[in-house]
């Protein structure tokens, strides 16, 4: 294995971008360059890299040029959302309407190009970017092709998508975050060490060395800075050496120098033969100069799509000129997209503001810009999109289909995915699993109940049975409410990672369940050990072990129900409300409080796992012929005690079978609910 420095310098030799990227901490100077559609990265990537990779996997580096350049073309993209208002008492049916978010947007972005989408807030930039990333739900009309093909699962794994909000695990450090991504996303032909090396390399490339061991942090936990978070998100996508990289507002909330550095970084990635598209709010003129192409949107309609350097010329040709010579082109474009014509008199800003109020004027400016686009730009753009030439940067069409066939499998095996997600989950949640608060909660309840039932005796059978019922209910509630949070909390991460094709849902699901097991099982074990012996239950080791096993079984079933409710509703408030109603029903129908439930509702106990758990606890605690002192000097059979008699005939295996069915059934339901809510 080569030392990282050596590898880095070799890679940099192949890709000029890397020279610039590795200088993150130094002053970044990137100037607008001529459109790079002429940059032909294909021969090198096509002829050399795949071979290199096959013969010597260690030479694979994310710093090399993109392996399969992508030309992205989109034509007449339109998207509408349906808006429905809820009914009221006066108009119970509510109303339904649709709203157009994108309307006839077209463009081309070739390998090596950086395309920026500009437009006012709400103009549809994010929606278009999400559509281009193949992640927009619902029906999109128009045509979006990647090397002439529709979006495919192999394309998904070659696409990097950096969302506006960074979805990262707060308790992992920067290096851990990138290492786990590398382990999950890099191909199986690389060894673990090589993958870790790639993560290290990204850290260096993005200038994250200083904060590599800092935790990422989140809203309630101070971690790395906003710019560093953004770079970690970009780094996660860089790891897969994406041929198509899409970024949503990568500079929002950052100071101008940091923004400049981020854009310089993505410009560098484009120079490595990637197709890079970004939305951006208010770029400075320095940033604007780095763009090769721009698409300007106004209320979802395009007013410009083409070379960034020709914007002024185009708008000048249709009669719109900036107020003064040194105006930032981005400001000029945003004014136009808002329907505001920049005033030619520099000092008269009041005039501009007064125009803001003239909605009609603005709308007519927008309409005129949209029609000018349709008349002057669209025909040539459409012809260019439809031109069926063999792009020199594209692999031959056979290459495109082999791309589809050979890469449709996952980059890592099921088992690797399981192990990495499990390890990551244990690390991320160790503070939560072993939180002092949780341990205190369980310990205090166990000691308190041990004291309340202190050395209870069979002559006080009512109390003893009460303790067994308490076991079944407490260890029904506690795991249920813990499990409810699992999937709603993880949802953003799950959507992000599944959208990038990082792992199978099943490997994630089993890793998540397995990761929670240690703590889910350790706490009840401590609880039962303390309370069983303090509470004076049967002093037999076998009975104690059986009691413990029944409670652990109950915990797993109840955890399954919590997972299922969380996965179905995906909303913690609704899920906890439903869970508390369910547990209340189980508590009442369990057989301890009411022994004369009317027949028509008595079936409720059969769906209650607490009922089966309670029944089993009683069955192992008392033998069939055991007696207790029911009155002074009088002995009665335990099995005739009303709260026990009500439980019905003692057939333990039926109860075990019912609990087993619930154990598996709830988990299947949770999995199916997750699958249905997932991007495919
Ligand atoms: N699922 C949705 N439900 C309701 N409205 C939506 C939905 N998706 C998009 N919109 C609306 O479509 C419009 C475009 O949204 P989009 O997020 O694409 O704009 P944007 O240009 O990226 O804005 P910003 O710069 O503020 O992020 C907005 O008015 C938004 O409210």
UniProtKB/TrEMBL annotation:
GO biological process: transmembrane transport
Alphabetized UniProt keyword annotations: ATP-binding, Membrane, Nucleotide-binding, Transmembrane, Transmembrane helix, Transport
GO molecular function: ABC-type transporter activity; ATP binding; ATP hydrolysis activity; ATPase-coupled transmembrane transporter activity
Domain of life: Eukaryota
Membrane topology field: Multi-pass membrane protein
TM region(s), chain numbering: 437-455, 467-488, 509-535, 541-568, 575-594, 656-674
Compartments in which it is found: Membrane
GO cellular component: plasma membrane
Keyword Transport on entry: yes
Renumbered residue ranges of the record's region Disordered: 32-56
Polar residues composition-biased segments: 37-56
Residues annotated as domain ABC transporter: 72-324
InterPro entries found in the cross-reference section: AAA+_ATPase, ABC2_TM, ABC_transporter-like_ATP-bd, ABC_transporter-like_CS, ABCG_dom, ABCG_transporters, P-loop_NTPase
Main location: membrane
Family: Belongs to the ABC transporter superfamily. ABCG family. Eye pigment precursor importer (TC 3.A.1.204) subfamily.
UniProt-recorded name of the protein: ABC transporter domain-containing protein
């Amino acid at each position: 294995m080569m030392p990282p420095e050596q590898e880095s310098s070799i890679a940099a030799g192949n890709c000029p971008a890397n020279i610039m990227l590795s200088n993150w901490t130094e002053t970044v100077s990137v100037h607008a360059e001529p459109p790079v559609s002429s940059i032909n990265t294909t021969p090198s990537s096509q002829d050399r890299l795949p071979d290199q990779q096959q013969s010597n996997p260690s030479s694979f580096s994310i710093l090399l040029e993109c392996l399969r350049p992508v030309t992205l073309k989109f034509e007449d993209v339109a998207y509408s959302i349906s808006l429905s208002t809820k009914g009221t008492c006066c108009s119970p049916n509510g109303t339904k309407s649709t709203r157009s978010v994108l309307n006839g947007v077209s463009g081309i972005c070739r390998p090596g190009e950086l395309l920026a989408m500009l437009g006012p807030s709400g103009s549809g930039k994010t929606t278009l970017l999400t559509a281009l990333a193949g992640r927009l739900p619902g029906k999109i009309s128009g045509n979006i092709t990647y090397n002439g093909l529709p979006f495919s699962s192999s394309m998904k794994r070659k696409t990097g998508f950096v969302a506006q909000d960074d979805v990262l695990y707060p308790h992992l450090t920067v290096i851990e975050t990138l290492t786990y991504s590398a382990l999950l996303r890099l191909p199986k032909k690389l060894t673990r060490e090589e993958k870790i090396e790639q993560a290290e390399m990204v850290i260096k490339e993005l200038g994250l060395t200083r904060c590599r061991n800092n935790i990422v942090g989140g809203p309630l936990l101070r971690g790395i800075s906003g710019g560093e978070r953004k770079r970690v998100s970009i780094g996660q996508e860089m790891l897969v050496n994406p041929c198509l990289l899409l970024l949503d507002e990568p500079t929002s909330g950052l100071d101008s120098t940091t923004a400049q550095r981020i854009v310089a970084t993505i410009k560098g990635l484009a120079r490595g033969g990637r197709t890079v598209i970004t939305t951006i709010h208010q770029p400075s003129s320095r940033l604007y100069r780095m763009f090769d192409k721009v698409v300007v949107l106004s209320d979802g309609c395009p007013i410009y799509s083409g070379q960034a350097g020709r914007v002024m010329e185009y708008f000048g040709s249709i009669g719109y000129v900036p107020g003064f010579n040194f105006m930032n082109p981005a400001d000029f474009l945003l004014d136009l997209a808002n329907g505001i014509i920049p005033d030619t008199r520099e000092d008269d800003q009041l005039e501009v503001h007064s125009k803001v109020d003239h909605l009609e004027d603005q709308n007519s400016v927008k309409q005129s810009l949209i029609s000018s686009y349709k008349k002057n730009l669209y025909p040539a753009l459409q012809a260019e999109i439809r031109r069926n030439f063999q792009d020199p940067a594209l692999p031959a069409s056979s290459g495109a289909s082999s791309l589809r066939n050979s890469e449709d499998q996952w980059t890592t095996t099921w088992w690797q995915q399981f192990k990495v997600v499990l390890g990551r989950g244990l690390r991320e949640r160790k503070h939560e699993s072993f939180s002092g608060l949780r341990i205190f909660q369980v310990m205090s309840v166990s000691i308190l109940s041990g004291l309340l039932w202190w050395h209870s005796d069979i002559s006080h059978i009512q109390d003893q049975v009460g303790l067994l019922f308490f076991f079944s209910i407490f260890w029904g509630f506690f795991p249920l409410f813990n499990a409810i949070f699992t999937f709603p909390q993880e949802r953003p991460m799950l959507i992000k990672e599944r959208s990038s094709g990082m792992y199978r849902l099943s490997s994630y699901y089993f890793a998540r369940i397995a990761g929670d097991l240690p703590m889910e099982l350790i706490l009840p074990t401590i609880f039962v050990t303390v309370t069983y012996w303090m509470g004076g239950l049967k002093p037999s080791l076998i009975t104690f072990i059986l009691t413990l096993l029944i409670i652990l079984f109950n915990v797993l079933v109840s955890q399954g129900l919590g997972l299922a409710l969380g996965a179905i509703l995906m909303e913690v408030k609704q899920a906890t409300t439903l869970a508390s109603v369910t547990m209340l029903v189980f508590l009442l129908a369990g057989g301890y409080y009411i022994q004369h439930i009317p027949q028509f509702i008595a079936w409720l106990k059969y769906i209650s796992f607490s009922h089966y758990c309670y029944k089993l606890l009683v069955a192992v605690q008392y033998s069939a012929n055991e007696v207790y002192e029911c009155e002074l000097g009088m002995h009665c059979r335990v099995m005739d005690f009303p709260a026990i008699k009500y439980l019905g005939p003692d057939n333990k295996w039926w109860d075990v079978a019912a609990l087993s069915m619930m154990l598996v059934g709830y988990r299947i339901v949770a999995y199916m609910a997750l699958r249905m809510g997932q991007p495919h």
